[in-house]
Amino acid sequence: MIPRKLRLSRAHFAPTGPEKRLVSSHFSLSIRDNQTEGGCAVVVSKKVSKLSVGRHLLKRRVLSVLKPWCLPTRALIVYARPGSQTIPFPVLKEELEELLTRAFPEVR
Question: Which of 35, 44, 46, 86 registers the highest number of CB atoms within 10 A of its CB?
């Protein structure tokens, strides 16, 4: 789980400045740098999974991949797209890490 100080609330989702967007086949990543408060969040809508059990499972999987990338200086928001619930965890991890390395090539 991500520490509470690195979790984003709904107030952080309103666009306040420049935002960088990256898209893959199953996920969309939104990055905002130079925030007063940073952290990570995952959004899984009912279009992705009708049952809350599936939405929460996908959220936990994505957050486990995001944990090393969460910093207090930037806000990362991952939006799950339809079909992302059915992919196995190794594929999910590979796809998210590819998105994050495209966003931050200097880190890894």
Answer: 44
Pick the residue with more confidence: 93 or 11?
Answer: 93
Note whether 66 and 42 are within 8 A (CB).
yes
- Tell me which residue of 46, 77, 73 sits closest to 62, measured CA to CA: 77
Report the distance separating Cα 70 and Cα 50, nearest Å. 28
SS3 readout for 44-72: CCCCCCCCHHHHHHHHHHHHHHHHHHCCC
56 has pLDDT over 70: yes
Q: What CATH number does domain 4-103 carry, 3.90.1170.20, 3.30.230.10, 1.10.10.10, 3.30.1370.10? A: 3.30.230.10
